Amino acid sequence: MSTHSSETLVVRGACPQDCPDTCAFLYHVEDGRLVEVTGDPDHPMTRGGLCVKLKNFAEHHYNPDRLLYPMKRVGPKGSGMFERISWDEALATIKSRWTDIIAEYGTQAIMPHAYLGHQGTLNGLTAGDAFFNRLGSTVAEKTYCESGSSTAWIMTVGPTGGMDVESLAVSKYIIVWGMNMLNTNLHGWPFVLKAKAAGAKIVVIDPVRTRTAKQADWHIRIRPGTDAALALGMMNVIISEDLYDHDYVEKYTLGFDQLKARAEEFPPERVSEITGIPVVDILTLAREYAGTQRSAIRQGVAVERSPGGGDAVRAITCLPALTGAWRYPGGGTIEMPIWEFPFKFDFMCRPDWIPPGTRVINELELGAALTGAMPLDPPIKSLFVYNSNPVSQAPGAGTIVEGLQREDLFMVCSELFITDTAKYADILLPATMQAEQLDIMVTWGHLYMHLNQPAIAPPGECVPNVELFRRLAKTMGFTDEHWDLDDWDMLRRCYDWDAPVMKGITLEALKEKGWMRLDVGLPDERTPHATGDFRTPSGKCEFASSLAAGGNFVVPVWRSGYEAMQPGTSVDPVPNYIPSVETMLPDGASAFPINLVSPKPHAFLNTQYANEPTQQRRQGEQIIVIHPMDAGPRSIEQGSYVRVFNERGAFEARAEVSEDVSPGLMMTNVGHWPGLNRSGTAVNSTTSTRHCNLGQAGTYSDNRVDVQRV
Amino acid sequence: MTHVVTDNCRGCRYTDCVASCPVACFHVNEVRVYIDPAVCIDCSACIPACPVHAIFEEFDLADDQQHWIRINAEAAQRYPVIRTRLAPLDGADARRQQLGL
């Protein structure tokens, strides 16, 4: 800050990215130009520092490749040949094409496709929901990430915020389960370090020896997709050795006898065979966890990314109720505290506008939906993509590309850049970046509200998503009051400002302070479930879930608020271990002998910033990490270029030969732009579109491949 | 990728960097600090914290400063982690003035 002149205007903002940290920004503006973005030193999470991903955030706004004007396609699909047009022409084209499609096929022939490319209340996950619900489009189920965990969490403890990440500072035993916090929850790590300095033991459960695993007191390598077996094995030990909290279990849980019976099926020897973890380690983990109060489990999203991932999250979420960890500050589990915020989803999404009987298509099945592999009547004739980049981020990328090449598919894409997905659009619409728009940021990793105030004017003709959908609504002739509300009006209506947790928080106060903590107690004192108070139908932690009777469901926030047309497939009331489809094949049963996991990159946020040369230098090119025992027989050496392939597709990468992975396991990162890779493809060319057992989440970690030197 | 502490730290050891580091990647000896490249997560929070501009992102190092990459990596193995700020060394302010900072 001190490096800038007194002419510098400082505007408060917040990070737009899909990350649990949601940092508090200070935008530094000189002569109308954003010169620097720094972290607020007073914010308890941000602590003055951002992260490697956001390091060039100010410059990112001025990237010369930014999409600044509406464009129309003038070459073959995917050629990237576009010509500037006016907003009027873009909107008129959309209206004309959609009117024709609706006349011939009906409104459900139109499908939106969005995710969390932006995490704002107005411009994020649900930005287009009200519009598309009003239009009567197909409802898109947005389950790229977290949906399986959400369903599992709500089935077990209800929509509670759970433990505060800041409470980790007073924990005595911390299990980081399926999360590389140093890469993806960096601002939570100082609380872990504080606990460690006070004597806490830090355990990391991860198939890969990540940066975070290297910093732990104990790294437990687990076979991907077997987390439920480990959690049930821990319960087996905890119950059979009578290490559980009888009083807590009796008063505040439901279905202990059923859970006990299930846990009996998972003795340590069996769990060891499933997970690859030595029996002694399972025993030690269970005994230490149950025997150390103020124990915390920081759950990562990786747990859900396997066919049994939903039940794994349920099983893990049962653990602190079994041991009574919820009684203590710094005890319990963190999954996603988003449920603590009083959003008014019904206002944001307007599910009341969805015509009864409207169908749902899952976004991870986009390729099948577009190519006809999924029988659809009517077919998808128009796709509207915003806040997402399925060609890179969705599984089964090859089929998606095939579908996007359809000449009869009218595709509109609102974007910052011409991404691997956007290049297939017929109409491109330019979106604003974070310093150019107003929003309240949604956060799923801490308990602060942040107001992001615009610091600079949007360049060219870029518009925030909220304005984009206002324009589309007016273009389509919608006259509801909703479309006349300005951003401030919308923010006032998007939250229940009178909710108890909002005590003292107002929009006016946020304008001045930038961020404010929900009134949910202090991190070193807070015990949200010391005496139960779970938000389940029974008010208890449900080891046997009463919601299971309704079958599998996606929490409505991930599906435009829509309650109907849920998957409804049968769900066991008690969490179980559901084996992965590909990972757990016996040796020799698959032509593809290696399991590939694809966690998030270090220097990119999914695909964002992966087109910035400075970030490319920091991240390096697409790599795979392969064990020497797998590399040797294939003549793969450190730095060799390799082709990774299976029956679904292939991509090329540079090999890093390392024992950070186990034999039979490889790791790569999702987020590299396929078009910037050597092969023009990336890891999701190889992933399958199967779903996790709950919430229709993806199973990116259940992916068998082979690899050869090129 | 990492960050490195260069020669300006020697004799100053202000350690403001340590307080800004979210991952405790600094190691300390009698005269200065070093960064462990296996732990540094490249966030750059330490760079503006250093009063003597000793810290650089690896690829911003001048050609004649490249040797600091190896020195930091090796020294980090030898010296203990420092998690909290220490008082600057005697003579730190004088050295800072000598450095023109």
TrEMBL record, chain A:
One of its GO terms (molecular function) is oxidoreductase activity. Residues 8-65 form the 4Fe-4S Mo/W bis-MGD-type domain. The keyword Metal-binding applies. It comes from Methyloversatilis universalis (strain ATCC BAA-1314 / DSM 25237 / JCM 13912 / CCUG 52030 / FAM5). Belongs to the prokaryotic molybdopterin-containing oxidoreductase family. It comes from the Bacteria. InterPro entries: Asp_de-COase-like_dom_sf (IPR009010), MoPterin_dinucl-bd_dom (IPR006657), Mopterin_OxRdtase (IPR006656), Mopterin_OxRdtase_4Fe-4S_dom (IPR006963), Prok_Mopterin_Oxidored (IPR050612). The keyword Iron applies. Keywords: Iron, Iron-sulfur, Metal-binding. This is Molybdopterin oxidoreductase.
From TrEMBL, chain B:
Its cofactor is [4Fe-4S] cluster; [3Fe-4S] cluster. It comes from Methyloversatilis universalis (strain ATCC BAA-1314 / DSM 25237 / JCM 13912 / CCUG 52030 / FAM5). GO terms for molecular function: 3 iron, 4 sulfur cluster binding; 4 iron, 4 sulfur cluster binding; electron transfer activity; metal ion binding. It comes from the Bacteria. The keyword Cytoplasm does not apply. It holds the Pfam family Fer4. This is Ferredoxin. Residues 1-30, 31-60 form the 4Fe-4S ferredoxin-type domain. Keywords: 3Fe-4S, 4Fe-4S, Electron transport, Iron, Iron-sulfur, Metal-binding, Repeat, Transport. Ferredoxins are iron-sulfur proteins that transfer electrons in a wide variety of metabolic reactions. InterPro entries: 4Fe4S_Fe-S-bd, 4Fe4S_Fe_S_CS, 7Fe_ferredoxin, Fd_C, RnfB_subfamily.
